[in-house]
Amino acid sequence: MILGQISYLDCIAFLVFLAPQLLIQIGIIPLLTWLLPQLPFLTFKVLVIPIQFIHERFLVPLEQRAPWVRKATPFQDLVIRFVRYAFANMPAFLGRVFFSKQVSLPFLRFRMLRHGVVTSPIRWTDITRPNFKGVWIVHNQQEQPDLIVYYCHGGGFSMGSSYFYMEFLLAWVALLKAAGYRNPALFALEYTLVPDATYPTQLHETLAGYEYVLSLAQSSTRIVVGGDSAGATLMLSFLLYLSEHTELRHQKPGLAIMISPWVSIVSPENRNTASDYLNSSSLEQYGRQYIGSKVSPDDAMVSPGNCKDIQKWTEASPEKGWYFLYGSEEVLGPETRNLIALLEKTGKEVDTWEEKGGIHAWPVASLYLGETKEARLSGLKSVVGAIKERIH
């Protein structure tokens, strides 16, 4: 199921679904306690952001514009400017509602109906177990999958849900089917968010989710692990952990897909750029909250970029290697390049797609903001192509 670009009508519908959930999940008193002091600043920004947009978009010479602005459509540019402000200034408890199941699923159904789709041709099922939960998506529920993607969503460990990614995940499975896989499937982990739990809870849930996927797969080599941002961090930590696991170290996945990975949780290399919507200060705050008090930020298991041991990465690498996708203008770009350079020394296959002028997790965001179908699917098609090339 592949829907069209997000429209202004979709944006209005999203706000309609969001408003009651803010009251339900946060409560009117806490919401007003945060909102009222912020109203002057919010009002100011609502006025200033469009002015800045017009100035940089139409008055500044092309060569002086930020790399992202040069390549983005006006709609994409404006949306990312508001996202940039929200990421830097809004608390995680608000973002958590934005990306929640209660907002995301009604919004998906609205978009489906707007495109004339009453029921998704690919079905999903909520999976709940004592030590993990997630969403199971499979083309044909009556047959064993011939390929399984095991995915962890992003969101700074403090927000996000698989349901917010549902349209992206459904499109991924649809493209895998079109690429020739008989019955592709995907399991998206719903790991516990901060502050409900901190490390290592999420890592243990990731391991439990992998054991579940193993029970459904033809073999571990038919499993692709992946994630974006904080979800990619979890997968990197998981692969390091798996390489030391007594029982599972010989059941490594076939391939790893890393979309804009948050390689090092706390690093001076994570610096703001003129293009990206991430904010390094907010990132560090979210990261330290995830790390908690049980381990050091320098611990390689919680912050995989701190592992510089080539042998460990050799043992942690999937059978068919790695595929990295990230933007050249990302806050997280320098640490991603450092990890890629290290992995290349292992002798494992490492392919990369660095999008010039690109920003954080654009292969995910472009599915919603891309102007044409080709632009919306370019990132996912690249991922599917990498999978098809290595797992036949």
TrEMBL record:
InterPro entries: AB_hydrolase_3, AB_hydrolase_fold, GDXG_lipolytic_enzyme. Residues 149-362 form the Alpha/beta hydrolase fold-3 domain. GO terms for molecular function: hydrolase activity. The chain crosses the membrane at residues 12-36. SUPFAM superfamilies: alpha/beta-Hydrolases. It holds the Pfam family Abhydrolase_3. Keywords: Hydrolase, Membrane, Transmembrane, Transmembrane helix. PANTHER family: AB HYDROLASE SUPERFAMILY PROTEIN C4A8.06C, ALPHA_BETA-HYDROLASE. This is Alpha/beta hydrolase fold-3 domain-containing protein. It comes from Bipolaris victoriae (strain FI3) (Victoria blight of oats agent).
